[in-house]
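Before drawing any conclusions, I needed to go through one protein's amino acid sequence and its C-alpha cells, quoted below without any editing.
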Amino acid sequence: MAGHVTEEHPHGADRLCAAGDRLYSRAVRRGRVPREDADTVPCLVELALLHPDPDDMGWLVPTSPQEVMTRLLRGVHAEVSASQARMGAAVDAVEWYAGLGGSRALKPTDSTAIRVLDGLSRIRAAIDEATDRCTTEVLTVQPGGIRREDELREGLHRAMAMCRRGVRMRDLYTHVARHGQGLHNYMELMGGATQARTLDEVVERLIVFDRTVAFIPANSDRTMALEIRHPALVDYLVTVFERLWRLGIPLAAPLPSTGITGITHRERSIAAMLAEGHQDAVVAERLGISVRTCRAHIARLSERLGAASRTQLGVRIAQAGLDGPPRPSTPDDLAALSSPAPTAPAPAPVRAPESPTPR
C-alpha cells in the first residue's frame, strides 16, 4: 500500500499530498464528505482511504486510521523482508567471489577514498579523529549567518588543542557573521593561529585537514556527511577554498563601500541576486539571513531607489549598476535614479515577493 502511486499524485498513504491530507482529515472529523470533493484528489479513493457510503452513494466515508496503519505496517514488513532476502543473496554472492581468491591477499581499491558517515555521532567521531591527527593546517567554510555561542564553544577546545600543536587555521564566513560578537570573541581567544575572512555568500560547509582529508555534507539537514580522502578530490576542494579566500575580506577590515550613498553592502548583494531572478527565500539562504530580514532590506532598497513596484525595482537596480560588479559612481547617481524610468525595453523584472506564510 505504501508504494501505491498514481501519475497525478506520486505518493502513498504514508505521505499524502496537501490536498489529500486536508480532505482525509475533514472526512475523519466529520465522518463523511461529498463525493465531488474528491474529484481533485483521486488519490484518496485509489489508496482506499475513502470509499462510497453504502447508505448514500453521493458521499464518501473514510477508512479508519487504525486500519490504514495496519495496511501500511503490513506493506513495510513485506518491504523489509524483501530487503533482507536481497541482502542475504548479496552476502552469499560476495562470499563466493571472495573464495575465488583463496589465500591471496587482494590489494585494497580506492573505495575507501570516499566514506559515507551516517548520523551526527559518526560525523563527530570522524572529525574528532581527523582533528587529533592534524599537524599543519585546517581550512573551513562556514555558511549561514551569525555563529551561535554554543557552536563556537563546542569547537573551541579542539581548536585550542590544535593551536598548541602549531596548527594554523583559516575560516571563511558570510558577511552576516560579522554581526555576532561570539565570533569576534572566538577569534580573540585563538589569537594569531586563526584567520577569518567573509564573503557575501559561500559554498556549503567544508572542512579540510592537512590537505589530505575533507568533510562535506551529504544531505540538506547535515545528518550525513562524506569523508573524502581521494587526492584529486581533496585538491579540487582546496582550490575552491583558495579562490574564495582571495575574494574574501578579512574579518578585522571594514566592508567596501557600495558606491551609492545609503545602499549597504548587504543590500547591494540582495539587489544583484534579485536581478538574477532569485526568490526571496533563496536570497536569504545564500546570505545567511532570515526571509523576514531579507524582505526588510528589499523594502529599504525599493525606498532608496524610488521604486514603487518589484518590476520597477528591477529597472532601478539596473540603472544604479547594482546588478553586477561595483562600478565607479558619481554624486549624480541618486539624482538620476529619481528621474522617470526610460521607455526603452527594461531588464527582466525581479521576481514578485512570495507569501510570508506557507500555503
